[in-house]
Amino acid sequence: MATLRVEELGPAALYRKYDPAEFSFETTGDLDDLTGTIGQERAVAAIEFAAGIAREGYNMFALGVPGTGRHSVVRQYLEKHAAQRPVPPDVCYVHNFDESDKPRLLLLPAGSGHQLRRDMTKLAERVKDALTSAFESEEYQNRRQVIEDEFKERPREELQDIEERAKEAGLVLLRSPVGMAFAPMREGEVMSGDDFRKLPEEEQQEIQKKVEAFQEEAQKALRQMPSWDRDRHTKVDELEQEVAEAAVVPLVLELKEKYEALKDVAFYLESVQQDVVDRARELVQQSESSEERSAGAAGRGQDPDLAFTKYHVNLVVDNKGATGAPVVHEDHPTYDNLIGRIEHMAQFGALTTNFNHIKAGSLHRANGGYLMLDAHKLLSTPYAWDALKRALESHRLRIESLGQALSMVSTVSLDPEPLELTVQVVLLGEPMLYYLLAQHDPDFEELFKVASDFDSQMEASADNREGYVRLLAELARRDRLRPFDRTAVARMLEQSARLAGDQEKLTARIGQVHDLLREADYFAGFNGGETVTAQHVEQAIEAQIHRSDRIRERVHEQIVHGTVMVDVEGAKVGQVNGLSVLMMGNFAFGQPSRLTARVRLGQGNVVDIEREVELGGPIHSKGVLILAGYLGAHYTPDRPLSLSASLVFEQSYGGVDGDSASAAELFALHSAIAEVPIKQSLAVTGSVNQHGQVQAIGGANEKIEGFFDICRAKGMTGNQGVILPASNVRHLMLRRDVVDAVAAGRFHIYPIETVDQGLELLTGMPTAARDESGEYPPGTLNRLVEERLMEFAEKRRAFGAKGADAEDAEPESTGEAGNN
Amino acid sequence: MRIKRIVIAIDASPTSLAALEATAELAARWDAEILGVFVEDTDLLRMATLPFAGEVGSHSGSFRAIDAKDIQRQFHSQAERARKAFESTVQRLRVRSSFEVARGSVKEELLDALRDADLLSLGKGGRSLAARLGLGSNARAIATAARGSVLVHSHIRHIIGPVAVVFDGSDAGHRALATGIELTRGYGPEVIVLCISETRELAQELASLASEVVAADNLKAQCRHLTPADAPRLVRLARFYGADAMVVPAHSPILSDEAIESVITGFSGPVLVTGGTEKS
Fold first, then answer.
1. According to the model, what pLDDT value does residue B140 have?
2. I need a surface site. Which of A459, A618, A669, A773 has the fewest CB within 10 A?
3. Long-range contacts of A542-548 (CB under 8 A, 24+ apart)
4. Cα separation, B71 vs A745, whole angstroms
């Protein structure tokens, strides 16, 4: 009987070797830096598109696994575009003289903000000096004195006149604690009530009339006093305005001429002038009292000239010296850091603030350009994501405290004029975040219309290889590492392929490659080398593995000592070596596991014990269910599959998932059904479909190396090896010692495409297809399996005939049959 | 001159409280005793018994009828406030003191209280005692009658700057100069002397005389002479030299009552009118 021939893989197929001779350079020191990027054409096109289109909603999410260079690539392309865009204006906040709690926004051409801030600080100082000397001048003092004297004399004269006339009329003006009173005099004394009543009636009336007349006059005079006082105030105000105008207008005029072209500034300067003139007296008084306080206040870090700081300019975004649009990366995207904040100052136990305490957020600084944010940080900072969306949706950047935004505080604070926002935001994050946002946040798609998808690997094409080598050279140079010679570069490329898990690819997770460069350089230095060679790279890789493989060592030790039972020689019925991969952070290793199968008469169900105890994941269960489909269709298409099988990963105490053991499970089932032993010198990985085709799995390298390590530890017999799906061959980048063992014929790797190929390798028996009569030829494994299954079917039918109600009684009778 | 006993007329008005503070400070400085007097004005009490008695509010200008009980109540409450303010001030400054409430004519009661005193201190402005007494003539009359001096206070509570003395060479003038020196001693190096006389020559002589007198006390005299002496010029000069207080002789043959009154009203600081034996 002819067997299905499976070609064992030669060493060349196990490892993509890069020939150092193919490189034209001696060391990476001969190479120029990489210009542009490599292997991320799709992502780069998306960045170019987003940066170029610059329209509403065309913000970008750069998704990719960490270490793929998203950050530097995005920044590089954004900076390229930013350089061609205009420099955005300077952003200033100034006092609002109409509504002091709503500071006004001034946008000025880049550089002018700086200038205006300096000019206004100087102006405030000059106004202070000018007002102080104007109000101290003899001219003002004398004119003011004249007004004061004039109005002081008036009521006095008025009352004196009344007093004198009263005296002439025989009355006296008396001053009581609350006012004044008139009384008749007699012989130099105030007349008493008794004396008064003794007077003739007529005289009494005459005196009373006179008193009343004077009372009225006094009332009239006193009632006029407030209006005289008003007149005095008005005159003093007029004088002060005149003096202040003379002092201040020439100072402001100078600036008005300087900023004539900037309408907003001109308008602002006009209101500054008006305010100074209106509040001149108050300003002088405040500056006098602040001078008295200044010694103490300066010690407490307070501004001694609070009255004049309202004429300062708070330059929150200074674009002086900028050459294009800004590219801002906010690495701490909190609510405040994004949208800005209003700080407060403790003053005599109370918190106070003004427009000078407004601080810009990164959105302010990035306005007119680009803002880069780490999506994970943004989403894990409370309310930052909502604030960002709100700003992008409304195109306005309003600074409000978190308390205000959530309507949790209602204390009086500032409400600065919002800034019109024209920023493009680039979020950088892992793909999972992108998909979650797309699925759960309805605003996300509207606001982030462009996805820049960074691949984790790239084709190892000639162009990419050349670029890759130059990237290595650039990274080495940037970190001031020793030059890497050709052998080292070749080894780096090989390791890159191993990291990509594909002979035809290179990893795009440059972060890992970068680490390896640094570590290889360390070993070169450690060994006293001038350049880094392949040997140093190898040393660095081994050291990386050694640093992380404590668990692997322990697991393998347990297998070698027989604590975990895995046979690597001999043959057993219903038992096969499966291969699994354990991930420990970034380090993965393969672990062989014993897979066993038991069969008995039953209803055609294959019990996955892992599943039953909830140690198996859904994909594993799916793989197991496929087995029943394959068995039924392959061997008993016209009869019910009448067996009950149980499958288990022996000594597995953690969870199992994935379908990469389904081929091994199927082989164990075949062995158990046909009662044909399986070679324990081989381990199996691969998944199967219902047609018996073997399909690719992940982690092929680690699995093979895992079994190899166990065989080596337990003793190499020369016929040990691994069976793997043929479609996984391109993923092989095996360790040097494994490749060497294969080359020496001490270890074997068999690529298979069908279940039958695997069965023949494991059992040594031919399998064969059905012949013309639809029968499997005698002496083949398939024949044995089929006969056994027929036997089960017959037995089940016999049981069915015995039972009155086959449907209901079947489970019990099956149980009995199983026990027999 | 030596001031041992000061009488202060207080009525709890803001100016009188400022006067109290400044006077108590002077008393502490001179180690003098201070007598606080609150006078219940009998003229007012008599007025209140008239059938049409009433008062016009000094601020509101409104009229209201009053009787003797109202006036009594006002006196009582004012006297109490005045006493409290007086006691708290004198205790703080540790000045020997006494306080009394008198009833009678304000002028007579004060004259009576001043009989054994060297200085009468009054508040200035509004319905202060100084205003009620008539500023110039009465201050002068009191000063004459009591052989002491009258200090008319403004709102200024502390005298720390230089003192301007009006000097005419008379005995009262010499007393004024001595008082000015007394007020300055320990507080500054300089006395401002404003010499007044009929002629320029005489004024210059007065200036050199004043300089000698002041120099004898180890102080310097800043002399200016004025012919003729008019009150507004005196006040302007005092202000120009930054004077905190003025000292004016009561019996100057050159200064009229009106001129003294004008100095008291025109000068923003305290004005001390010095008395002395009147020349016949």
1. 53
2. A773
3. A543/A519, A544/A516, A544/A519, A545/A587, A548/A584, A548/A585, A548/A586, A548/A587
4. 132
